[in-house]
Amino acid sequence: MEGRWNRFGSVAAIAFLLYFLLNAPQEAHAMHIAEGFLPVGWAIFWWVLYLPFFILGLLQIKRITKEKPEAKLLLGLVGAFAFVLSALKIPSVTGSSSHPTGTGLGSLLFGPLTMSVLGGLVLFFQAILLAHGGLTTLGANGISMAVAGPFVAYGVYQLIMRSGGNQKVAIFLAAALADLMTYVVTSLQLALAFPAANGGIFAAFVKFAGIFALTQVPLAISEGLLTVLVWNWLQSYNRSEVEQLMLMRKGGYRTR
């Protein structure tokens, strides 16, 4: 039965990725804020806010790889998972697009600070290679996708597990709500930079959030399901390593 479930999960994951690849728009304004779109002051503000998380994440990755060098493979896996998912864009309304984020998985395995680095690298390479996002807006995109989303994923998972909840439900909700939080923060960032003439920041936030909501809500559900499937796969083939990582994370990745 377990083998059948794993095969189903693999097929579902592949189908999910193919669907979004084949339906990705060739030209659209993505949920990543585009290069040069933010006023200079706001671009600098979000960069300054993002950098401390990135630096702390680097220190955490250094501790993880020092204590458990073999974790580098899983670090690469969760980074690639986030890169592929967040590069898949589907049309939204008014010429925009939405996409999954893929940050929940790494947040649960390594903690949110680690994803602040991996998410930042994902955003950098997407800006350079895919013209998805930008360098001036990487700080803002980093806060929404690589900081806010991962911290929500981690917090939701911990809250459910400490309350005696089901692990699969915790993983699903963590990944789904991390996805939603990313688009909520992006909407807030745009609203702060471009308040509406009538209604100000709140009216602008409602407008920007509405643009993403129609596609982002089903995307968040899909990402939650996919993350559970990938977690099941990791448990089947790398159970001991996953369990060791979870224990290390609980202990704060202390070195000997």
Describe what this molecule looks like in 3D.
- This protein is an all-alpha fold.
- It has 9 helices and 2 strands; from the N terminus they run αααββαααααα.
- It has helices at residues 2-22, 40-67, 71-87, 104-110, 112-130, 138-162, 167-193, 200-237, 239-250; strands at 90-91, 97-98.
- Strands 1-2 form a two-stranded antiparallel sheet.
- Strand 1 and strand 2 form a beta hairpin.
- Helix 4 crosses helix 6 (138-162).
- The chain starts with a helix and ends in a 6-residue tail after the last helix.
In brief:
The protein has 256 residues and is mainly α. The chain has helices at residues 2-22, 40-67, 71-87, 104-110, 112-130, 138-162, 167-193, 200-237, 239-250; strands at residues 90-91, 97-98.
Low-confidence stretches: 1-29
Radius of gyration: 18 Å
User: Treating each run of at least 4 consecutive H or I residues as one helix, how many helices?
Assistant: 9
Question: SS-based structural class?
Answer: mainly alpha
Q: Sketch the major β-sheet.
A: 2 strands, antiparallel
Lateral strand order in the biggest sheet: 1-2
- Total number of strands: 2
Shape by Cα distribution: globular
Q: What is the straight-line distance between the termini? A: 41 Å
Report the helical percentage.
Answer: over 70%
Q: What integer is the average pLDDT?
A: 82
The run of helices and strands is: HHHEEHHHHHH
Proportion of residues in β-strands: under 5%
